[in-house]
Design goal:
The protein has 19 helices and 19 strands. The protein is an alpha/beta fold. The strands form 5 sheets. A 7-stranded mixed sheet has the order 7-6-15-16-17-14-18. Strands 9-2-1-13-19 form a 5-stranded parallel sheet, with helices on one face. A 3-stranded antiparallel sheet has the order 10-11-12.
Amino acid sequence: MTERERWDAIVIGSGLGGLTCAAYLCAIGKRTLVLEAHYVAGGNSQAFRRQIRDRQYEFDVGVHYIGECGPDGLITQMLNGLGLAERIVFRPLDPDGYSTLYFPGLTFRVPASWDRYRTRLLDTFPEEKEPLGKVVDVLRQVAEQGRRFQRGELALEDMAGEAPLFLQWGLRPVTDLFAEHGISEAASAVLLGEQGDYAVRPSKTPTALAAGLTDHYMRGAFYPEGGGQAMAGRLVEAIRAYGGEVRTRAPVKRVRVEGGRAVGVELEKTGAELDAPIVVSNADLKRTVLELVGEEHFAAETVERVRGFRMSLPLFAVYAGLDVDLVAEGLPNTNHWLWGSTDIEGIYAQVEDGQLPDENLAYVTVTSLRDPESRHIAPEGYTNLQVMTLVPHDYDVWNVERGPAEGGRYHRDPEYRRRKTDLMEELLETAERVVPGLREHTHWKEAATPVTQERFTHSTGGTSYGIEYATDQMGPARIGYTTDVEGLFLCGASTPAGHGIANVMFSGLRAAEAATGADLRRAVLAGEVLGDRGLLPALTDAWDAWRESH
């Protein structure tokens, strides 16, 4: 008889939150198993490869640019705590314009500096100098106070004295702040020009979220050398080196609960039961509570809250390979945000009403510019490019009745394919505004709908961002890292930390804290290295993050 598997902890899902949690659990001596349904670990940080005749591309799913990667950045500190800081190189985007915003009659380059950002805004809107300056100052202070609170430098009881602006504005809609100071629709749109990164309509966007996103990049915007998969690969490497294991193609059927506490999991394919006194779910929040665990194990109030949470708007992505070298042509290393209108609220109303965007938003990123020396991103002389937009929640948009997580089939449906192709072509046409002749040079293209996202991550509604980070669904309104079920913990985009690479990694750290009682945040932010670097394998040029993540 085969001996029953027993672990100190089991983590369900291998997004960066789950991998960070597992790596820290392993680093402090907890033998931890990560179970991933997909064939490659990484969640939204993963990449996929395409062999186009004799040429190979590697496309990022969700990592396009990130902040907090400087010496004192949160991502750097969390990697350092695992002994990984020197094993991931972050390449900066253009510091004088890491993002370029395009509105009708207006182009604005966003610099990575609060002072330069403020100056450029006031130069762009000189007639609004005084009120706009006050708005930027409030955003900066709200962001700085919120950052101190996140890092544990500011206790909740001290907020009134040390973070008055955060208390005054942080939880209120950012549109209230704009209205209070009477700034124009155009100036408001520029301040929110990158808000596709969180996909919340302005009137529901907490000022703390808008301020925090801008602040996230004010110390630099970066891209990890080797892409998002490099971050996942290094975390997988650390988990294995520190005594844990990562298994792909291992979907979990249910979390086993006995006597009111989690005791392990049951695997879907084999029916095998694995034991562990700690279970951490990095899976979709709604599926965790309502399916993997079962609502009967939670308080009725918790179940009602989870059922009532709204999901963030999902994304549609186009992946293109170009037979031209845009790196050699000297294009700036910037994000391109193309808005069809300064009425961002109206754009969200359209999408939330079930309508596909009509050139209202397109995000264009040239991955080859991010990491020009990568041997995987694109063949020499070719370019890897992506275009994305927000789309409605409703799967009727794609002629799909049931999502793939519920067993729905869609991929071969002619109408599904037609609608996907039509939107792909529209976005490529829009992208030609910043990359002239793009379609003429496209020798490979494919697209991913929210249905695709659900297929690979089982996220409710196919969203990449978890539950919507709106004023009524943020902070304490969310389910925390501990749950009603003893021994069951949560991490990921739907926890109080929120979505985004730094935040989901931070959620993994906080979940590991909750599961063990260890003060990991203090240790990590103080610069302690909890992982034993001596156990990590030697660095080699042949290391392949994508293969490491299998």
